[in-house]
Amino acid sequence: MSPQPLNSNEFHLHSLDSPFPLKAIAAPRHFVEPFARVKSLPKGALGDIKGRGLPIQLESWIESLPIDLLKIVSIFAENNAGIWVVGGSIRQGLSGVTPNDYDLATDMKPKQVLKCFPKSIETGVEYGTVTVRLKAGGDMFEVTTLRCDQEYLDGRRPESVDFGTSLAEDLERRDLTINAMAIDLARQELYDPYNGLDDLQSGVLRAVGEATLRLEEDGLRVMRVYRFMDQGDGGLWHPDEMLSAALIECRKMLVNVSLERVWQELRRILSGFHAADVLARMDSDGVLKIIFNGQSFDLNGQSSLQRISDNSVIESRLAMMFRGDNPANLLKHLTMPKSVINRVSELRRSIGNLPNENDVAQLRVYRAVLGAGLDAQLACELALDTKDAKNIQAALNQLPENDAKDVALADGHWIVDKTGIKPGIRLGRLKDYLHRLQVENNVSSLDELHSMLNDIDWEESDPSDWPQLRWP
User: Fold this and answer.
1) Given CB 3.0 to 4.6 Å as the disulfide criterion, which of 19, 205, 353, 443 pairs with 239?
2) CA–CA separation, 365 vs 348, rounded Å?
3) How does pLDDT run across 204-254, given as a tens digit for each residue?
């Protein structure tokens, strides 16, 4: 018999006397050793924790590591420093998610880090953090010197920071077990002293050590726990009994946290896949009342809100939450950007003010005024089960786009030329009036608009009575 190759992975054996195959066997495949990409990295100082081999689910994570990260790790090791990947990128890698950024921990002091990497940025040297990069404009990675924090007196930051050499002590001061893991790339070892991998696989949030003590060290950790409850496609995770009790006990610590930091965490919670469930938990635990400084809010409709873009979903959730009371002062107090405050105000103003589904002119004006915010507005109406919202959405979906695409045909020069009106309030209001007529009637040319202009008593009537292109 002689082998007859059919493809690169399989052979069929044939008899010399027959063209028919007798047996199929697999061709040998090239074996690729797991984690081969990092095996040749130089080894830095050894961590003071017993490690274990990298779980096989980190293989794709290893393959996706940026080349600059591997170069930086090598430079630390060549300078006899310990260097470990820490933080969220490990958690994401174990969950099958490709990280957007990577954090590193080292026993090298910040000044020495800056000396080894002169293009770095002094992000927070007093706390041991340097943003390391190999060149200006290159990939950036936060590198923090191992720490053993002293007493926290204000619930915001440690009274002092002592730089250390113990990886064990550094991981001991972290908030959750799923964040208290480290990886030595050169040795292909995972350090997981608090069984964060087990909690990750079980979908449980558990504090490192005593839960109350961990949260009291930094009040923002309360917000972080609620954020970590939302694992997107990974589902809704729940804190264990001790952490659940600590969240309620330590909620008062939020008053010590800067409002900017609170808003950054709240923003991420609002944009989360399971935001409605997390907000309900925060309400039940009495946390929202503290964040919103006692202002009334309503979570009705949050669980029904359709998935829209991140910015729009944040603004929509806030508009629905505060549709009863104007939250402008509160949102300013929480240091929200002016653009967010304005969009929340616009959404609030229009909630419940829907056009007549059978009035094409109203539908056109509604669509033109809301513009890019139309999807968010309708999402709010549908979530709140506003009367006729579904019918309005269907009517808008069937309504053809205006020929002029809602862009004003008549500018001030054209109006002055046709009327002789001098620049001022009357000219501005007439321009807006004509724009509304254009949208309502799907006007596509200036000739049509000129005919409508001739029907307006623009010389004698009060311009404050003229319709404007606005909704409601």
Assistant:
1) 205
2) 18
3) 999 999 999 999 999 999 999 999 999 998 899 999 999 999 999 999 999
Q: What is the pLDDT of residues 97-146, one digit of tens each?
A: 889 999 999 999 999 999 999 999 998 888 899 999 999 999 999 999 99
- Cβ neighbors of 246 (< 8 A, separation 6 or more) are 207, 211, 212, 214, 215
Model pLDDT, residue 32: 63
99 prior amide bond cis, ω within 30:
no
CA distance 341 to 315: 8
Residues 228, 232, 233, CA angle at the centre, nearest 5°?
135
3-state DSSP call for residue 431?
helix
Q: Among 3.30.460.10, 3.40.50.300, 3.40.1160.10, 2.170.120.12, name the CATH number for the domain at 36-202.
A: 3.30.460.10
Residue written as token pair 């009367």: 387
How far CA 443 is from CA of 2, 355, 402, 447, 452, in Å, comes to 80, 20, 8, 9, 10
Question: Quick check: helix, strand or coil at residue 323?
Answer: coil
Per-residue pLDDT at 16 exceeds 50: no
CA-to-CA distance for 308 and 282, rounded, in angstroms? 23
pLDDT at 154: 52
CATH number, span 208-291: 1.10.3090.10
**pLDDT tens string 180-210:** 999 999 999 999 999 999 999 999 999 999 9
| Separation in Å, CA 214 to CA 128, 192, 207, 208, 262 | 20, 18, 7, 7, 17
Q: Look at residues 456, 382, 386 and name the one whose alpha carbon lies nearest to residue 418.
A: 456
Q: Nearest Cα to 179, choosing from 92, 70, 266?
A: 92
Pairing mode of beta strands 121-124, 189-191: unpaired
Residue 413 tokens, joined: 């020069």
What's this model's pTM, rounded to 2 decimal places?
Answer: 0.85
How much of the chain exceeds pLDDT 90, in percent? 85
Give the domain ranges of the chain.
Answer: 1-31, 36-202, 208-291, 295-399, 412-465
Report whether pLDDT(15) > 80: no
Helices (H), 323-411: 328-333, 338-350, 360-370, 374-383, 389-398
Q: Can you say how many angstroms the Cα of residue 148 is from the centroid of all Cα atoms in its chain?
A: 30
- The pLDDT-based confidence of 364 (bands split at 50, 70, 90) is very high
Measured between alpha carbons, how far is 121 from 142 in angstroms, rounded to an integer? 9
